[in-house]
C-alpha cells in the first residue's frame, strides 16, 4: 500500500478520521512519540496495528481518549487514579486501571486482561483527531523492537519504519516530549511504576504523597499476557495443531468454515481479531478445545505464541 503523508490541517485531519473510521491504521503525533492508531472498538483495526508493527506477541495497547470524561466511560478511575488524572491529563501519563464491563473496546486491545492502559494525550493534533474519532488504540509507530519515532520521517524510515505498511501518517513535526508516557498501575493495590517515561516518578509521588512502588523484574515482560496470573486462559485444555477434532472436542478452525472458525479464508489478520473472543466462546462449551494449525509466520506467529501460552500447563 501507498502510505499517505497528511498535513494536520482541516483536510488532512478529516482524511485521517475517514481512514480510521474505515478500520485503517494511521500514525499520529502525540507529545510523547508518534503512535500507530486504530479504532479501539474495531478488532480488525487493532489486528492491523499488530501486523504493521510485526509484533511477535499481543502486548496490550494503550487507549487514547480526548478527556477524563471519555476515560471514565472505559475505565474505573479509582480514587488514586482520579487524582493522578486530574494532575497530569492531558499529558504523558498512562494509567493501568480496571476496565469497565461496558467499555466496548476490542478484546485484542487488552490482550484479554481485565485492566486497560489509558491516556489523554496533550498534543493539539491528537486532541483534535480524538474528538473526530473516539477512542484510539496506539502503540509507538515503529516496527517491533526498533526505536520509537518522534517525527513523521522516523515513521516512514526505510529501516525499521512503517512506509508501505500503514495507510497514512499525520505529519505535525517533532514530538515535544520525545519519550513514551510514564505508566502507573496498581498490581498489588499499590501505586506502582510500570514504566518510567515522560513524567518523572517523583512528580507523580508528590501528588500521591508517597513514593511509587518499584516494578520488580523486567519493566515490560512480566506485564505481557500469559505471564500474569490474571491473564485469561481457558479453563478447558487446549490441543494445538489439530487437523481435525477428536470426539468430544470443541474445534477452532482456521482456513475452513465452522461455528468457531478463526478465519474462513485463512486470513491471519481476521484470525487475530477473533482469537480471544473465539477462545472464550469455545471455553463456554465446556469441552476440551482443539485448534487447527496456523501458519507460523506474520501474525500467525503471534497467534501461535498466545495459543502456546494458553495451552501451557498451569500451576
Ligand atoms: O507514550 C506512549 O505511551 C506511546 C504513545 C503512542 O502514546 N505509546 C506507547 O505504547 O508507548 P506501547 O504499546 O509501545 O507501550 C504500551 C505499554 C506496554 O509496555 C504494555 O505492556 C503496557 O503499556 N500495557 C498496556 N496495557 C497494559 C495493561 N493492561 N497492564 C499492564 N501493562 C499494560
Ligand atoms: Mg513501543
TrEMBL record:
Coiled-coil portions: none
Cellular compartments per GO CC: cytoplasm
Places the protein is found: Cytoplasm
Stored InterPro entries: DHBP_synth_RibB-like_a/b_dom (IPR017945), Sua5-like_dom (IPR006070), Sua5/YwlC_C (IPR038385), Sua5_C (IPR005145), T(6)A37_SUA5 (IPR010923), TC-AMP_synthase_SUA5 (IPR050156)
Pfam families cross-referenced by the UniProt entry: Sua5_C, Sua5_yciO_yrdC
Catalytic activity: L-threonine + hydrogencarbonate + ATP = L-threonylcarbamoyladenylate + diphosphate + H2O
Protein family: Belongs to the SUA5 family.
Name this polypeptide is given: Threonylcarbamoyl-AMP synthase
Organism encoding this protein: Paracoccus subflavus
Amino acid at each position: 500500500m501507498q502510505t499517505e503523508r497528511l498535513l494536520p490541517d482541516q483536510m488532512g485531519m478529516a482524511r485521517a478520521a475517514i481512514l480510521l473510521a474505515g478500520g485503517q491504521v494511521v500514525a499520529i503525533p502525540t507529545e510523547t512519540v508518534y503512535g500507530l492508531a486504530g479504532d479501539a472498538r474495531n478488532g480488525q483495526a487493532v489486528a492491523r496495528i499488530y501486523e504493521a508493527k510485526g509484533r511477535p506477541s499481543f502486548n496490550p495497547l494503550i487507549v487514547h481518549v480526548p478527556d477524563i470524561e471519555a476515560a471514565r466511560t472505559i475505565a474505573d478511575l479509582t480514587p488514586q487514579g482520579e487524582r493522578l488524572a486530574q494532575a497530569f491529563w492531558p499529558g504523558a501519563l498512562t494509567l493501568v486501571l480496571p476496565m469497565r464491563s461496558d467499555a466496548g473496546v476490542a478484546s485484542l486491545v487488552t490482550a484479554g486482561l481485565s485492566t486497560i492502559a489509558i491516556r489523554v494525550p496533550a498534543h493539539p493534533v491528537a486532541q483534535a483527531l480524538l474528538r473526530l474519532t473516539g477512542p484510539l488504540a496506539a502503540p509507538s509507530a515503529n516496527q517491533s523492537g526498533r526505536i520509537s519515532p518522534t517525527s513523521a520521517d522516523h515513521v516512514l524510515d526505510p529501516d525499521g519504519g512503517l512506509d508501505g505498511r500503514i495507510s497514512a501518517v499525520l505529519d505535525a513535526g517533532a514530538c515535544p516530549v520525545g519519550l513514551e508516557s510514564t505508566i502507573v498501575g496498581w498490581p498489588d493495590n499499590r501505586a506502582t511504576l510500570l514504566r518510567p517515561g515522560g513524567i518523572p516518578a517523583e512528580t507523580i509521588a508528590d501528588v500521591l504523597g508517597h513514593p511509587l512502588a518499584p516494578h520488580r523484574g523486567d519493566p515490560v515482560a512480566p506485564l505481557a499476557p500469559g505471564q500474569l496470573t490474571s491473564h485469561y486462559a481457558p479453563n478447558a485444555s487446549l490441543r494445538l495443531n489439530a487437523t481435525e477434532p477428536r470426539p468430544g472436542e470443541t474445534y477452532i478452525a482456521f482456513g475452513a468454515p465452522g461455528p468457531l472458525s478463526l478465519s474462513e479464508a485463512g486470513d491471519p489478520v481476521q484470525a487475530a481479531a477473533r482469537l480471544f473472543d473465539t477462545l472464550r466462546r469455545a471455553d463456554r462449551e465446556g469441552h476440551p478445545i482443539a485448534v487447527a494449525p496456523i501458519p507460523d509466520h506474520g501474525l500467525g506467529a503471534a497467534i501461535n505464541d498466545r495459543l502456546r501460552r494458553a495451552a501451557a500447563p498451569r500451576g
